[in-house]
Every structure is written in C-alpha cells, then in structure tokens.
User: Fold these one by one.
Assistant:
Number 1:
Amino acid sequence: MAQNIYDDPEFFAGYSRLPRSLVGLNGAPEWPALRAAIPDLRHSKVVDLGCGYGWFCRWAAQQGAAWVVGIDISEKMLARARAATTDAAISFVRADLGRLGLAEGAFDLAYSSLALHYVMDLSGSLASVHRALVAGGSLIFSVEHPIFTAPRRPGWLVDAQGHKTWPINGYLIEGPRQTDWLTKEVIKQHRTLAGYVNLLLQLGFSLSHIEEWGPTGEQIAARPSLADERQRPPFLLIAARK
Amino acid sequence: MAQNIYDDPEFFAGYSRLPRSLVGLNGAPEWPALRAAIPDLRHSKVVDLGCGYGWFCRWAAQQGAAWVVGIDISEKMLARARAATTDAAISFVRADLGRLGLAEGAFDLAYSSLALHYVMDLSGSLASVHRALVAGGSLIFSVEHPIFTAPRRPGWLVDAQGHKTWPINGYLIEGPRQTDWLTKEVIKQHRTLAGYVNLLLQLGFSLSHIEEWGPTGEQIAARPSLADERQRPPFLLIAARK
C-alpha cells in the first residue's frame, strides 16, 4: 500500500496552501499542456486517479462528461472534494491506486495528475486501467519527471554566476526515494522514463505523445522564477491509447 | 550539413583506438541491448546510417541479410569499411545523414549507432527513413542520451565520499552543444527524449521499445569502471516500426 502522506496534518496544511490547491487547475503551470492532450469529453466516462480536491473531476463534468469517478486514498482530500460539488455526474471513491478494482471497459479516459509516482505496484495499477478503458480509450497522466525524482539529494546547485544545475545520480536505480517536501519523509517511487514508456507498451497501450514539461516563454514572463525549470523538466506528461 | 568530425585527423586517430573501433560490435557495451531489438535479418534489406568501419553491415550480412547499404559522411571511415569486406551483398555510400535520398520502400530495417546526434535536420532525415522502409519495417537506433548531451559542462562532480553526480542544465533547450571529445570543438545536437519520441510519432512510426542504457551487473563485474554509468544513462536506444 502506498504511503498516504496527504492525510499527514503537516503535509496537508502545506499542500492546501499551494497555488494548485487554492486556484485549481489554472494554478498548475503544466495544466495547459495536459489539457491540450485531453480529447472531447462530451458524453464520455472519466476516471481521475488521485483526484485530490476534485478540481479535474468538476472540470470534466463541465466539459460534458456523462460521469466522472474521482479516486483518492486521502480522506481529507475526498471530504473537500465532496463538499465542493453537488453534481450528480461526479462520484468520489476512496481507494489505494495500487489496488484498483475498476470495472472492465467502463471508461473513455483515465486521467491522473502527479499521483502515480506514489504508487508502488504501478504495473498492477496500469494493467487495471488498461482493462477499465474501452478500445480507443485514452490514458493521460503526469508524474514528477525521472530527472527530478532520481537524485539522492534533490536541490539546485548554484555557481558563482548564479547558474543553476540539477545533480543527477542514481537515475537507473528505480525504487523509493525519501524527500522532505511539505513535511519530512515523503516517499515517492523513482522510475526511469523508459520504465514508464515500456510498461505502457507491454500492457498493450500505444504511445500518443510524451512531454517533458517546462514553462513557455509566456509563463516565464508572467512568473520569472519558473525559468529555472527549463534547466531540467519537473514533470513528465504521457498520453497513450488502448 | 553536419560537421564531418570523423575526418578530422586528431578525432579519427582517437576514435580508431576506442574498443568499439578495435573490437567491433562486442567492444560497445550497449551492443547486446541493441542486438536484442533487431528482428530476424534473413533475406532482409538493411541500411546503416553512420556505418563507420562497417562492423554492423558485415554482421547484418552474416545474419543473412539480402543486401546491406552502409552510409557515412566520412571518407576515412568508408575507406576502412570498404577494405574490410569483399561481400557483394554490402555496399557503402558516402552521404550526409541530414540529406538522405533513400529509395521508397527499399528497406526492412534502418539501423543507426551513435550517429543521429550529429544530424541537424533530424526531422528531414527520419522522414526520409520512414519513406524508405516497407510497411512493418523497423527503425532501431542509439544516440547519446539527452541527459548526457544537455549540460554546458559535461563531466562528473565527485564529492568527498567519491559519489558521482552528473550536472544537468539546459535540458529543455534543444540545439548544438560543443564538447571536447577526442578533439576540440566536436558539435553534437542536443534533443530531449520527448523530442526524439514525438518526432517518430509525428512521422507515423509506432514506438516499440526505448531503453535508457546502463550496464548490467555482469558487465560491471567484468569492468568495474562501468558502474558510474548507472548514475545517469550514457545512451538512449529506440526501436520503432512503420
């Protein structure tokens, strides 16, 4: 079972103050890139793996999805998600993403934002997603980029000129990484980029698009601190089809 | 036109002394991984992009390929390649990989080892390869890994405990990188991993497998200095089908 860090009080308090928590999808700089990969949702059935506050579920319902299921392991997140909508097309379910028991052929789109790097048995989880999609259905997800998750000691090195460098090591050694992000001892699973892609191919997905996300020039103009993210991508976005 | 560094006397002399030049395919630690992706070559037509000394061309002919075309821009490499075989199934052609004019549907396999990172117009080059493959044909290639090519100053950082770290910067900024490898001012093109993959998908290839190559435990046991390569992958191998 994955660590349920989101129900840790310190983590939850920190997470609640992030722009993506306060503002929703538009508070996440990678959202425009993810959104661009999402097909027309009218009359479609959608599952959101690691739905958090349910921002994406509500957006999907607004786009005309027939029904939307948000899944999360965090009671606190789900309580907020449920309190934020009365839309009968949306339902929230508590479950471990590593132990999904989704109905066969139930969904047109499986979506996941920055959640799958917490899952230990990703192969089992994505096999369940593959079964749960209709033929031609889409899986679209983001995770922390493997370059971001690899290092023993993640954090910028800054030289005398202020140039930033990201210290890679352990890249090919997949497995848990413990970091201090919002609270102590948050455990994420480091996987290589090839690890993600080959798992999808082995499960029978075909790859549609991958993006090693970095900010656009426009985003950097609006928020200059984002410029560092072009030195190494913080997020990996993947779109695949069954 | 790509820089023809292989005809530089200092570079050529250095390259000639590398294990992969002296021993051939088995002198390249990534060869077993590349080989595993190669389909049965009996009666097939093969093109090798950046064939160098022609080791792969000769191997492909030994595997039963009906004919093999080796392409390279370096006169010196081609002279050695031609001198090393009298096999009528093999021919060598001098051409710039950035300006390929391959016949339509002429090949079952396009192969390339550590050459495409020299090509400026990779899109034009791989579009030509796509046209030149039969339906169901394979493209299998290796390049220096984007993590390897990205940095302004490539080279290990070593801490007091001897731990090695690779300094990433400029990863999302694609374009030329000038390094000193075997001689001064060798120019390679840095592309992101997503850049390679999405280019293939846009051209109509489907992705079969990618590998961020690192040494196996057995290889490290035989040659302990290879262990560092698990800290960050030196090579990217990609297999795709038309």
Number 2:
Amino acid sequence: MKQKVVMGLSGGMDSTTLLGFFLEHGYSVECCIFYYGSKHNQWENKAAQDVLDFYKDVGSLVKGRLINISQIMKGFKSNLLLSGGDIPEGHYHAENMRQTVVPSRNLIFASIMAGIAESIGAEKIALGAHQGDHHIYPDCRAEFIKSLDETICLSSDRKVEVICPFLKDDKTSILQYGYAFKIPVPYHLTRTCYKDQAISCGKCGSCQERLSAFSFLGIADPIQYAEAK
Amino acid sequence: MKQKVVMGLSGGMDSTTLLGFFLEHGYSVECCIFYYGSKHNQWENKAAQDVLDFYKDVGSLVKGRLINISQIMKGFKSNLLLSGGDIPEGHYHAENMRQTVVPSRNLIFASIMAGIAESIGAEKIALGAHQGDHHIYPDCRAEFIKSLDETICLSSDRKVEVICPFLKDDKTSILQYGYAFKIPVPYHLTRTCYKDQAISCGKCGSCQERLSAFSFLGIADPIQYAEAK
C-alpha cells in the first residue's frame, strides 16, 4: 500500500516542489490549501489549485481540500494579513520583513494537518520550510520543527510524525530538485509574491528571493512580473 | 500592569475552576470558547457563556470570544463529534472512552490561543488538563504539555509560554481549590456531560468522574441530572 502524507500547499515554489518530491517518491498526497486572510491569499490559493489540477491531469495520486481559517485569524497582528499595514519591499532577510510574521501560523497549519492525518490514516505531515526562512520566521527554524514533531508524536500517541525534507536546503537547491524530477515541477503555475495583486510585484522580499534562486541557476523564471526583473 | 493569560473555557468544572484560579491571582483573562462540532458543544458553550457572564457581573477582568472551528474539524474521526458514533457509557478510564479522543484537539486549541496571545500581548496560554485525563487522552498528558510549551516558546520567539496549573491534580483537588477561592466558582452553571441533551445524563464517563469528585468531598453537585445520582 502507498504511504500517505498530508502537506500544506501554498502554491509557492517550495511547497509545489515538496508535492513533486512526494509524488516522485510514490506517496499518495493529501494537500491542505489554507485561506487565512493574507493579502496574497486569493492569488496563492488559485496557484495552488492550478498546481493540483496539473498533477491530477497527469494521473498523480493527489487530493486537495481548501481550509478557511480567516475568521479564526482575524485580529492576529501581521502586515501579511489584510488587516495589517503595508508589505515591506527589499531583501528577504531584512529586519522589516519581521512585520510579515503571522503569529502561530505554521503551528495552526500543522495542528490541523495532524488531525486530518490521524483521521485518514496518514503517518506523516509535511511542511515546505527551508533554510532561507530561518532568519525571519521562528516557526520555520529547525529547532521549532524538531519540537513540533515531538509534540505531534505525543499528541497522536505516536501515530503521526512531522517531516520537512527541505529544512537544510536553500531555494536554489529546491529549484534544482524540482527540475530533476521525472515530472518536472510546474513552476509556471506557482506564485510567491506577498502583495495583493494578480501579477507578482518582483519587488517584495519574497519575489526577490525567488528571482535570486532562478538567476543563480541561470534559468528564466517562467512567471510574469509587474516590474522588469 | 496586570498579567494577561489566554485560556480555553469549555464550561466544564475544570476550566471554570481554572478561570477562577487566574482571577484569584489577579490576572486579566481572555477566554476562548471553542465550537468544534462535538455532540455536547452547544450545551457546553452555553455553560461557558453563563460562567463568563457570572464573572463579568461580579466585576472580574475577563473577556471571551467564541471560535468556530467545526468546519475545519468536519471529517475528524471521533465519537465525541456529531459525525461520530455513540458516546460510550461507564467509567472515565474504561477502554471504550478512547472513542471520545478528538485527534489534535488540544493542539489546535493551543495553537490558536498562542496566536491570539502573541497578538494581544499576553505572555501565557493555559489549559485545564488534569491528572484524571492522562490515561485516555494523549493530549492531556504531562509529556505532551511540556513538549507543547517548548514548541510554542519556539514558534513565538519565546514571547508565549504554556501553563497547566492543574496538571498534577485530580478532579477532587480541583473542586477543593474552587470552593476555597474568595469568589467561589459557580459550579451550578457548569456542565461536564458528553451527551447531546440539555440535562446532563449522569451516566457517561465524564459525568461519572465529576459525580465521584463531588461525592468524595461530601458536597452535593449543584447541577441537575437526568438519571438519579
């Protein structure tokens, strides 16, 4: 029987590569697409759905469900949310990017995914956190993921564990994996931008980090940007 | 300035005593009342609201918010939920009570409370888990709470910690605390029963455990039961 995993699919390049990774390794994958009220949520949810449709069309064993937690996170303090201030521009590791931290976000995502995993008999939940996230986002760091794994193991009576295959990788390595899979990852369908606009801005920290990874590999980023790259 | 704490208020005798405990110790308390789709949810939510109103009426520094996560937990496997099988009758520690475990419930509650705490500047979140819960519910055991505390500390960059004042107590001790507070806990407004009925059944494991605690202390339980005690 195939191994089952429950993962968060944001529609960005990291989680889309994660989905490709699990399909490459023969898993059956349950994707959770979260709507939590961020400025870019409607756009990234659309990207996630497009990615899901792509993999379904090529016959992959993947399912998806949209999980709306925007009411729950109303009042949470973060510039990433519709209720917060402006998205900062500049480098992904700049101090002003801390304004985009959403308190408890990955913990809420993971705790819901753990409940789904236990209910459908999946032994793993997975997050797409990577090395580049560590500086700004406390809930993407290795020590958090390790502790989260222990907490979820205990909460589920050791029925569910947390894995994070890209934890030690940077965005460049993730791209390299994605282009090497038997079914190349559909990066043309992904979206990374933090801003509330249909076309990615190319200027926010998140866009900048993505563009650097493509540039480092000498590959043209297949998505459209509002600003010249 | 008063210390702030965010806690889950189910309307049962443990969490109501916990609320009394924090008010006794001079905290300002933010109560989260969760609607997650259990059979007894509408009845326990009403009890929680009554408890909240009681403390507000005597001038306590307490606020409450209802958090509906029933859509998120739809499809979770548990006999405690409206979608699950019958609530077992008998002893609280009996094996068939495992059917009432809701996967990831306390973890989901805690992760949402941690996000609220960070957003309103509270340094603590609290759960009412106690020793009597440990046998059946993995997400009430000391090792889980310890790991959860570490996970939430890391997730919040050490801004929020988890406390569980009754972790080593049984229900009898909790009752003793409650009756000793300056403002005695309004046990007449609480509700502990797992069944979907207005009047507590007196037969499910949860009712039985509560009745034992009152009986041990020689105090009459002030709520009404459908069955003779």
